[in-house]
Amino acid sequence: MTSRFRIDASGQLVPAERQASPALGGRGDTYALMTGGSGDLLVFARSPAQGGSPPSPPRVVLSGDASGFPISDLIAFLSQMRWSGVIRVHAPGGERSVMLREGEVRGATSDDPAERLGELLIRLGYVERGQLEETLREHPPSKVGRALVEKGLLQAHDLFKCVTHQVSEIFHAIVLCREGAFFLVDQPVDDKAGHTIQLSTQSLLMDSIRKIDEMAHFRKRIPHGRLYVARKRGSDGKLEEDEDRVLALLDGQRTLLELGRLAQLGEFDVTKVVFRLLEGGFASLSERPLASAPAQGDAARAAAAPARAQPPRSSTPAAAAPAPGAQDALAVVRIFNFIFREIRDEVAKQAMDREFIAAANAALANQALSASPVLEGLGFAADGSLPEGRLVEAFERHRASLGSEPVASFKQALSDVMFFLLFQAGELLESRADEDLARRVKELLATLDAP
After folding, report:
1. Which of 214, 233, 257 is the last residue of a domain?
2. Which of 61, 142, 188, 416 has the most CB atoms at less than 10 Å from its CB?
3. Which residues on adjacent β-strands are paired with residue 85?
4. Same domain, 64 and 199
Protein backbone atom coordinates (compact mmCIF):
# COMPACT_ATOMS: atom_id res chain seq x y z
CA MET A 1 0.00 0.00 0.00
CA THR A 2 1.33 3.47 -0.92
CA SER A 3 2.06 5.75 2.05
CA ARG A 4 1.00 9.36 1.47
CA PHE A 5 2.55 12.53 2.88
CA ARG A 6 1.73 16.21 2.55
CA ILE A 7 3.98 19.26 2.39
CA ASP A 8 2.17 22.03 4.23
CA ALA A 9 2.37 25.79 3.62
CA SER A 10 5.43 26.11 5.85
CA GLY A 11 7.31 23.40 3.94
CA GLN A 12 6.92 20.76 6.64
CA LEU A 13 6.57 17.12 5.59
CA VAL A 14 3.62 15.62 7.44
CA PRO A 15 1.79 12.28 7.07
CA ALA A 16 -1.43 12.58 5.09
CA GLU A 17 -2.79 9.56 6.93
CA ARG A 18 -2.05 7.87 10.24
CA GLN A 19 -0.57 4.68 8.78
CA ALA A 20 1.99 6.65 6.74
CA SER A 21 4.28 7.51 9.68
CA PRO A 22 5.79 4.00 10.12
CA ALA A 23 6.97 4.10 6.48
CA LEU A 24 9.75 6.51 7.52
CA GLY A 25 10.68 4.56 10.65
CA GLY A 26 14.40 3.81 10.87
CA ARG A 27 15.26 6.41 8.23
CA GLY A 28 16.27 9.20 10.56
CA ASP A 29 19.21 11.00 8.91
CA THR A 30 20.09 13.98 6.73
CA TYR A 31 18.76 13.96 3.18
CA ALA A 32 19.44 16.24 0.23
CA LEU A 33 16.56 17.39 -1.95
CA MET A 34 17.69 16.81 -5.52
CA THR A 35 17.06 19.86 -7.71
CA GLY A 36 15.34 19.82 -11.06
CA GLY A 37 12.54 17.47 -11.95
CA SER A 38 8.90 18.33 -12.29
CA GLY A 39 6.37 19.32 -9.68
CA ASP A 40 5.11 15.73 -9.71
CA LEU A 41 8.33 14.21 -8.37
CA LEU A 42 10.49 14.97 -5.30
CA VAL A 43 13.68 12.98 -4.81
CA PHE A 44 15.61 12.87 -1.52
CA ALA A 45 19.08 11.32 -1.32
CA ARG A 46 20.79 10.52 1.99
CA SER A 47 23.82 12.75 2.44
CA PRO A 48 26.38 11.41 2.82
CA ALA A 49 25.36 8.07 1.34
CA GLN A 50 25.91 5.09 3.64
CA GLY A 51 24.91 2.11 1.49
CA GLY A 52 23.76 -0.97 3.34
CA SER A 53 21.64 -3.97 2.47
CA PRO A 54 18.76 -3.20 0.11
CA PRO A 55 15.25 -3.68 1.47
CA SER A 56 13.29 -6.70 0.35
CA PRO A 57 10.86 -6.29 -2.58
CA PRO A 58 8.74 -4.51 -3.49
CA ARG A 59 11.12 -1.56 -3.79
CA VAL A 60 11.59 1.27 -6.27
CA VAL A 61 14.89 0.77 -8.13
CA LEU A 62 14.54 3.67 -10.59
CA SER A 63 12.35 6.76 -10.85
CA GLY A 64 12.25 9.73 -13.17
CA ASP A 65 10.42 12.64 -14.76
CA ALA A 66 8.29 11.47 -17.70
CA SER A 67 8.73 14.84 -19.41
CA GLY A 68 12.51 14.50 -19.46
CA PHE A 69 13.01 10.92 -20.64
CA PRO A 70 11.06 8.94 -23.25
CA ILE A 71 9.34 6.05 -21.49
CA SER A 72 9.38 4.10 -24.75
CA ASP A 73 13.21 4.07 -24.68
CA LEU A 74 13.16 2.84 -21.09
CA ILE A 75 10.75 0.02 -21.93
CA ALA A 76 12.86 -1.01 -24.93
CA PHE A 77 15.93 -1.21 -22.68
CA LEU A 78 14.09 -3.27 -20.06
CA SER A 79 12.88 -5.65 -22.76
CA GLN A 80 16.42 -6.19 -24.03
CA MET A 81 17.65 -6.75 -20.47
CA ARG A 82 14.83 -9.28 -19.88
CA TRP A 83 13.91 -7.41 -16.71
CA SER A 84 11.10 -8.59 -14.43
CA GLY A 85 9.02 -6.21 -12.35
CA VAL A 86 6.47 -3.41 -12.66
CA ILE A 87 6.64 -0.13 -14.59
CA ARG A 88 4.38 2.35 -12.81
CA VAL A 89 3.46 5.74 -14.26
CA HIS A 90 1.76 8.55 -12.31
CA ALA A 91 0.35 11.09 -14.75
CA PRO A 92 -2.45 13.69 -14.78
CA GLY A 93 -4.61 11.14 -16.60
CA GLY A 94 -4.26 8.58 -13.82
CA GLU A 95 -1.97 5.84 -12.58
CA ARG A 96 -1.09 2.96 -14.89
CA SER A 97 1.19 -0.04 -14.54
CA VAL A 98 2.64 -2.66 -16.87
CA MET A 99 3.99 -5.95 -15.54
CA LEU A 100 7.05 -7.48 -17.19
CA ARG A 101 8.48 -10.95 -16.79
CA GLU A 102 11.83 -11.58 -18.47
CA GLY A 103 11.24 -8.52 -20.61
CA GLU A 104 7.82 -9.53 -21.95
CA VAL A 105 4.48 -7.97 -21.01
CA ARG A 106 2.40 -10.16 -18.70
CA GLY A 107 -0.38 -7.72 -17.81
CA ALA A 108 -1.39 -4.11 -17.19
CA THR A 109 -3.58 -2.15 -14.79
CA SER A 110 -5.11 1.32 -14.76
CA ASP A 111 -7.14 3.37 -12.31
CA ASP A 112 -8.98 5.00 -15.23
CA PRO A 113 -12.51 3.52 -15.13
CA ALA A 114 -12.69 3.67 -18.94
CA GLU A 115 -9.75 1.24 -19.17
CA ARG A 116 -11.26 -1.44 -16.95
CA LEU A 117 -11.99 -4.73 -18.68
CA GLY A 118 -15.70 -4.52 -17.93
CA GLU A 119 -16.01 -1.07 -19.48
CA LEU A 120 -14.06 -2.26 -22.51
CA LEU A 121 -16.41 -5.23 -22.95
CA ILE A 122 -19.37 -2.83 -22.93
CA ARG A 123 -17.70 -0.31 -25.23
CA LEU A 124 -16.89 -3.00 -27.80
CA GLY A 125 -20.43 -4.35 -27.62
CA TYR A 126 -19.71 -7.79 -26.14
CA VAL A 127 -21.90 -7.46 -23.02
CA GLU A 128 -24.64 -5.18 -21.73
CA ARG A 129 -24.11 -3.04 -18.64
CA GLY A 130 -26.79 -4.92 -16.73
CA GLN A 131 -25.03 -8.23 -17.40
CA LEU A 132 -21.73 -6.79 -16.23
CA GLU A 133 -23.17 -5.28 -13.05
CA GLU A 134 -24.93 -8.53 -12.14
CA THR A 135 -21.69 -10.46 -12.63
CA LEU A 136 -19.71 -7.95 -10.55
CA ARG A 137 -22.12 -8.44 -7.66
CA GLU A 138 -21.15 -12.11 -7.63
CA HIS A 139 -17.45 -11.98 -8.55
CA PRO A 140 -14.47 -9.65 -7.94
CA PRO A 141 -13.42 -7.39 -10.83
CA SER A 142 -10.27 -9.47 -11.43
CA LYS A 143 -12.44 -12.51 -12.27
CA VAL A 144 -15.21 -10.81 -14.22
CA GLY A 145 -14.01 -11.98 -17.64
CA ARG A 146 -13.84 -15.65 -16.69
CA ALA A 147 -17.20 -15.37 -14.90
CA LEU A 148 -18.86 -13.97 -18.05
CA VAL A 149 -17.44 -16.88 -20.05
CA GLU A 150 -18.72 -19.41 -17.52
CA LYS A 151 -22.17 -17.80 -17.67
CA GLY A 152 -22.21 -18.17 -21.44
CA LEU A 153 -22.37 -14.40 -21.95
CA LEU A 154 -18.93 -14.20 -23.58
CA GLN A 155 -16.87 -16.50 -25.78
CA ALA A 156 -13.40 -17.44 -24.53
CA HIS A 157 -11.74 -16.13 -27.69
CA ASP A 158 -13.57 -12.81 -27.34
CA LEU A 159 -12.28 -12.54 -23.76
CA PHE A 160 -8.75 -13.18 -25.06
CA LYS A 161 -9.22 -10.51 -27.71
CA CYS A 162 -10.52 -7.97 -25.18
CA VAL A 163 -7.80 -8.65 -22.57
CA THR A 164 -5.17 -8.28 -25.30
CA HIS A 165 -6.83 -5.03 -26.41
CA GLN A 166 -7.01 -3.74 -22.83
CA VAL A 167 -3.33 -4.42 -22.13
CA SER A 168 -2.35 -2.88 -25.47
CA GLU A 169 -4.38 0.28 -24.78
CA ILE A 170 -2.86 0.76 -21.32
CA PHE A 171 0.62 0.14 -22.73
CA HIS A 172 -0.09 2.66 -25.49
CA ALA A 173 -1.21 5.28 -22.94
CA ILE A 174 2.02 4.78 -20.96
CA VAL A 175 4.17 5.21 -24.07
CA LEU A 176 2.25 8.41 -24.91
CA CYS A 177 2.84 9.86 -21.43
CA ARG A 178 4.77 13.15 -21.61
CA GLU A 179 4.29 14.42 -18.05
CA GLY A 180 4.20 13.01 -14.54
CA ALA A 181 6.59 10.50 -13.00
CA PHE A 182 7.59 6.91 -13.66
CA PHE A 183 8.89 4.21 -11.31
CA LEU A 184 10.46 0.80 -11.76
CA VAL A 185 9.34 -1.47 -8.95
CA ASP A 186 11.30 -4.64 -8.23
CA GLN A 187 8.57 -7.06 -7.25
CA PRO A 188 7.35 -10.50 -8.32
CA VAL A 189 4.73 -10.50 -11.05
CA ASP A 190 1.52 -12.06 -9.76
CA ASP A 191 -0.03 -13.78 -12.79
CA LYS A 192 -3.13 -14.67 -10.79
CA ALA A 193 -3.97 -11.08 -9.88
CA GLY A 194 -5.81 -10.86 -13.19
CA HIS A 195 -5.98 -12.61 -16.53
CA THR A 196 -2.77 -14.36 -17.58
CA ILE A 197 -1.40 -13.12 -20.87
CA GLN A 198 1.94 -12.79 -22.62
CA LEU A 199 2.62 -10.18 -25.28
CA SER A 200 5.80 -9.18 -27.06
CA THR A 201 7.11 -5.90 -25.66
CA GLN A 202 8.94 -5.06 -28.88
CA SER A 203 5.81 -5.63 -30.98
CA LEU A 204 3.74 -3.48 -28.61
CA LEU A 205 6.33 -0.71 -28.84
CA MET A 206 6.34 -0.79 -32.63
CA ASP A 207 2.53 -0.84 -32.68
CA SER A 208 2.36 2.13 -30.29
CA ILE A 209 4.80 4.15 -32.39
CA ARG A 210 2.80 3.30 -35.52
CA LYS A 211 -0.45 4.36 -33.83
CA ILE A 212 1.06 7.63 -32.67
CA ASP A 213 2.11 8.50 -36.22
CA GLU A 214 -1.15 7.35 -37.82
CA MET A 215 -3.42 9.00 -35.25
CA ALA A 216 -1.62 12.32 -35.75
CA HIS A 217 -2.47 11.98 -39.44
CA PHE A 218 -6.11 11.03 -38.75
CA ARG A 219 -6.56 13.95 -36.31
CA LYS A 220 -6.03 16.42 -39.14
CA ARG A 221 -9.53 15.50 -40.38
CA ILE A 222 -11.06 13.96 -37.24
CA PRO A 223 -10.06 16.13 -34.23
CA HIS A 224 -11.88 13.95 -31.67
CA GLY A 225 -14.25 11.01 -31.32
CA ARG A 226 -17.36 13.00 -30.37
CA LEU A 227 -18.05 14.13 -33.93
CA TYR A 228 -21.16 12.79 -35.68
CA VAL A 229 -20.64 10.74 -38.83
CA ALA A 230 -23.14 10.70 -41.72
CA ARG A 231 -23.24 8.66 -44.90
CA LYS A 232 -22.83 10.47 -48.22
CA ARG A 233 -23.19 7.46 -50.52
CA GLY A 234 -23.52 3.69 -50.37
CA SER A 235 -20.85 1.06 -50.73
CA ASP A 236 -19.29 0.52 -54.14
CA GLY A 237 -18.58 -3.14 -53.42
CA LYS A 238 -14.84 -2.53 -53.11
CA LEU A 239 -14.66 -1.64 -49.40
CA GLU A 240 -13.09 -3.80 -46.72
CA GLU A 241 -15.43 -5.76 -44.45
CA ASP A 242 -15.02 -3.42 -41.47
CA GLU A 243 -15.52 -0.39 -43.74
CA ASP A 244 -18.78 -1.83 -45.08
CA ARG A 245 -19.95 -2.63 -41.55
CA VAL A 246 -19.29 0.90 -40.26
CA LEU A 247 -20.71 2.53 -43.41
CA ALA A 248 -23.99 0.65 -42.92
CA LEU A 249 -24.25 2.11 -39.39
CA LEU A 250 -23.83 5.74 -40.47
CA ASP A 251 -27.01 7.73 -39.93
CA GLY A 252 -25.75 11.12 -38.77
CA GLN A 253 -27.11 10.38 -35.29
CA ARG A 254 -24.10 8.52 -33.90
CA THR A 255 -20.69 9.79 -32.89
CA LEU A 256 -17.50 8.10 -33.96
CA LEU A 257 -17.09 6.56 -30.49
CA GLU A 258 -20.65 5.21 -30.58
CA LEU A 259 -19.94 3.67 -33.98
CA GLY A 260 -16.90 1.96 -32.51
CA ARG A 261 -19.02 0.36 -29.80
CA LEU A 262 -21.63 -0.87 -32.28
CA ALA A 263 -19.00 -2.21 -34.68
CA GLN A 264 -16.91 -3.71 -31.85
CA LEU A 265 -13.88 -1.61 -32.75
CA GLY A 266 -11.56 0.35 -30.48
CA GLU A 267 -11.13 4.12 -30.85
CA PHE A 268 -8.01 3.85 -33.01
CA ASP A 269 -9.50 1.25 -35.35
CA VAL A 270 -12.84 3.01 -35.83
CA THR A 271 -11.04 6.33 -36.37
CA LYS A 272 -8.95 4.67 -39.06
CA VAL A 273 -12.04 3.21 -40.75
CA VAL A 274 -13.96 6.51 -40.68
CA PHE A 275 -10.90 8.33 -42.02
CA ARG A 276 -10.79 5.96 -45.00
CA LEU A 277 -14.53 6.48 -45.58
CA LEU A 278 -14.02 10.25 -45.52
CA GLU A 279 -11.13 9.99 -47.96
CA GLY A 280 -13.26 7.89 -50.31
CA GLY A 281 -16.19 10.30 -50.22
CA PHE A 282 -18.48 7.83 -48.43
CA ALA A 283 -18.98 9.86 -45.23
CA SER A 284 -19.04 13.34 -43.73
CA LEU A 285 -18.55 14.80 -40.24
CA SER A 286 -20.50 17.32 -38.20
CA GLU A 287 -20.42 18.78 -34.70
CA ARG A 288 -24.15 18.08 -34.21
CA PRO A 289 -26.42 15.17 -35.14
CA LEU A 290 -28.33 15.49 -38.40
CA ALA A 291 -31.90 16.74 -38.09
CA SER A 292 -33.16 13.92 -40.28
CA ALA A 293 -31.37 10.60 -40.69
CA PRO A 294 -30.96 8.98 -44.11
CA ALA A 295 -32.62 5.71 -45.05
CA GLN A 296 -32.01 2.99 -42.52
CA GLY A 297 -32.18 -0.07 -44.75
CA ASP A 298 -28.48 -0.82 -44.71
CA ALA A 299 -28.15 0.04 -41.02
CA ALA A 300 -31.06 -2.20 -40.08
CA ARG A 301 -29.62 -5.09 -42.04
CA ALA A 302 -26.22 -4.52 -40.45
CA ALA A 303 -27.72 -4.48 -36.96
CA ALA A 304 -29.72 -7.64 -37.64
CA ALA A 305 -26.75 -9.58 -39.00
CA PRO A 306 -24.22 -10.61 -36.36
CA ALA A 307 -20.86 -8.97 -36.89
CA ARG A 308 -18.24 -11.54 -37.83
CA ALA A 309 -15.52 -11.63 -35.21
CA GLN A 310 -12.42 -9.89 -36.44
CA PRO A 311 -9.13 -11.69 -35.93
CA PRO A 312 -7.22 -9.85 -33.20
CA ARG A 313 -4.12 -8.13 -34.43
CA SER A 314 -1.57 -10.19 -32.64
CA SER A 315 1.01 -8.28 -30.64
CA THR A 316 3.16 -11.38 -30.32
CA PRO A 317 5.96 -12.20 -32.72
CA ALA A 318 6.68 -15.65 -34.07
CA ALA A 319 7.73 -17.91 -31.22
CA ALA A 320 11.23 -18.20 -32.61
CA ALA A 321 13.21 -16.45 -35.33
CA PRO A 322 12.99 -18.47 -38.54
CA ALA A 323 16.03 -20.10 -40.08
CA PRO A 324 15.28 -19.79 -43.81
CA GLY A 325 15.47 -23.12 -45.60
CA ALA A 326 16.53 -24.99 -42.46
CA GLN A 327 13.10 -26.33 -41.50
CA ASP A 328 10.13 -27.60 -43.41
CA ALA A 329 6.49 -27.16 -42.56
CA LEU A 330 6.14 -30.71 -41.24
CA ALA A 331 8.83 -30.18 -38.60
CA VAL A 332 7.15 -26.94 -37.49
CA VAL A 333 3.75 -28.64 -37.24
CA ARG A 334 5.13 -31.49 -35.15
CA ILE A 335 6.81 -29.18 -32.65
CA PHE A 336 3.71 -27.03 -32.22
CA ASN A 337 1.47 -30.08 -31.94
CA PHE A 338 3.73 -31.36 -29.18
CA ILE A 339 3.27 -28.00 -27.42
CA PHE A 340 -0.51 -28.04 -27.96
CA ARG A 341 -0.76 -31.55 -26.48
CA GLU A 342 1.42 -30.50 -23.55
CA ILE A 343 -0.96 -27.63 -22.76
CA ARG A 344 -4.03 -29.85 -23.16
CA ASP A 345 -2.54 -32.54 -20.89
CA GLU A 346 -1.92 -29.99 -18.14
CA VAL A 347 -5.51 -28.76 -18.37
CA ALA A 348 -6.75 -32.38 -18.35
CA LYS A 349 -5.34 -32.73 -14.82
CA GLN A 350 -8.06 -30.28 -13.80
CA ALA A 351 -10.68 -32.35 -15.70
CA MET A 352 -11.36 -29.33 -17.94
CA ASP A 353 -9.93 -30.64 -21.21
CA ARG A 354 -13.25 -31.10 -23.02
CA GLU A 355 -14.33 -27.51 -22.35
CA PHE A 356 -10.81 -26.34 -23.19
CA ILE A 357 -10.79 -28.04 -26.60
CA ALA A 358 -14.34 -26.85 -27.34
CA ALA A 359 -13.36 -23.22 -26.66
CA ALA A 360 -10.25 -23.56 -28.83
CA ASN A 361 -12.26 -25.02 -31.71
CA ALA A 362 -14.85 -22.25 -31.41
CA ALA A 363 -12.05 -19.70 -31.69
CA LEU A 364 -10.65 -21.41 -34.79
CA ALA A 365 -14.10 -21.66 -36.38
CA ASN A 366 -14.60 -17.91 -35.89
CA GLN A 367 -11.12 -17.14 -37.26
CA ALA A 368 -10.55 -15.27 -34.01
CA LEU A 369 -6.93 -16.30 -33.44
CA SER A 370 -5.18 -15.57 -36.71
CA ALA A 371 -5.97 -14.16 -40.13
CA SER A 372 -3.73 -16.78 -41.77
CA PRO A 373 -5.52 -18.94 -44.37
CA VAL A 374 -3.57 -22.04 -43.28
CA LEU A 375 -5.90 -22.48 -40.27
CA GLU A 376 -9.21 -22.26 -42.14
CA GLY A 377 -11.49 -25.23 -41.54
CA LEU A 378 -9.19 -26.91 -39.01
CA GLY A 379 -10.00 -28.08 -35.50
CA PHE A 380 -8.28 -29.65 -32.51
CA ALA A 381 -8.56 -33.37 -31.84
CA ALA A 382 -9.37 -34.59 -28.34
CA ASP A 383 -5.64 -34.92 -27.57
CA GLY A 384 -5.05 -31.23 -28.34
CA SER A 385 -3.36 -31.63 -31.72
CA LEU A 386 -4.19 -30.15 -35.11
CA PRO A 387 -4.36 -32.45 -38.17
CA GLU A 388 -0.77 -32.74 -39.33
CA GLY A 389 -1.40 -33.65 -42.95
CA ARG A 390 -4.07 -31.00 -43.53
CA LEU A 391 -1.88 -28.29 -41.99
CA VAL A 392 1.07 -29.12 -44.23
CA GLU A 393 -1.24 -29.30 -47.24
CA ALA A 394 -2.71 -25.88 -46.37
CA PHE A 395 0.78 -24.44 -46.03
CA GLU A 396 1.78 -25.67 -49.49
CA ARG A 397 -1.51 -24.47 -50.99
CA HIS A 398 -1.17 -20.95 -49.56
CA ARG A 399 2.63 -20.65 -49.67
CA ALA A 400 2.55 -17.95 -52.35
CA SER A 401 0.27 -15.73 -50.23
CA LEU A 402 2.35 -16.02 -47.04
CA GLY A 403 4.87 -13.36 -47.99
CA SER A 404 8.59 -13.48 -48.61
CA GLU A 405 9.17 -15.78 -45.61
CA PRO A 406 6.33 -18.33 -45.72
CA VAL A 407 7.76 -20.55 -42.96
CA ALA A 408 7.97 -17.54 -40.63
CA SER A 409 4.34 -16.65 -41.43
CA PHE A 410 3.36 -20.26 -40.78
CA LYS A 411 5.07 -20.17 -37.38
CA GLN A 412 3.37 -16.86 -36.59
CA ALA A 413 -0.08 -18.35 -37.20
CA LEU A 414 0.65 -21.35 -34.98
CA SER A 415 2.19 -19.05 -32.35
CA ASP A 416 -1.03 -17.03 -32.23
CA VAL A 417 -2.94 -20.24 -31.54
CA MET A 418 -0.42 -21.26 -28.89
CA PHE A 419 -0.71 -17.96 -26.99
CA PHE A 420 -4.49 -18.29 -26.90
CA LEU A 421 -4.17 -21.82 -25.50
CA LEU A 422 -1.71 -20.58 -22.86
CA PHE A 423 -4.12 -17.77 -21.98
CA GLN A 424 -6.93 -20.28 -21.58
CA ALA A 425 -4.78 -22.63 -19.53
CA GLY A 426 -3.65 -19.78 -17.29
CA GLU A 427 -7.29 -19.13 -16.37
CA LEU A 428 -7.64 -22.72 -15.13
CA LEU A 429 -4.29 -23.62 -13.56
CA GLU A 430 -2.66 -22.75 -10.26
CA SER A 431 0.31 -20.39 -10.43
CA ARG A 432 2.99 -23.07 -9.98
CA ALA A 433 1.49 -25.35 -12.63
CA ASP A 434 1.11 -22.41 -15.00
CA GLU A 435 4.74 -21.36 -14.51
CA ASP A 436 5.99 -24.94 -15.03
CA LEU A 437 3.93 -25.21 -18.22
CA ALA A 438 5.33 -21.91 -19.52
CA ARG A 439 8.87 -23.14 -18.85
CA ARG A 440 8.28 -26.41 -20.72
CA VAL A 441 6.71 -24.58 -23.66
CA LYS A 442 9.69 -22.21 -23.81
CA GLU A 443 12.07 -25.20 -23.95
CA LEU A 444 10.04 -26.80 -26.74
CA LEU A 445 10.01 -23.56 -28.73
CA ALA A 446 13.79 -23.45 -28.52
CA THR A 447 13.94 -26.66 -30.57
CA LEU A 448 12.60 -24.74 -33.58
CA ASP A 449 16.05 -23.18 -33.90
CA ALA A 450 17.99 -26.32 -33.08
CA PRO A 451 20.35 -27.37 -35.89
Report:
1. 214
2. 416
3. 100
4. yes
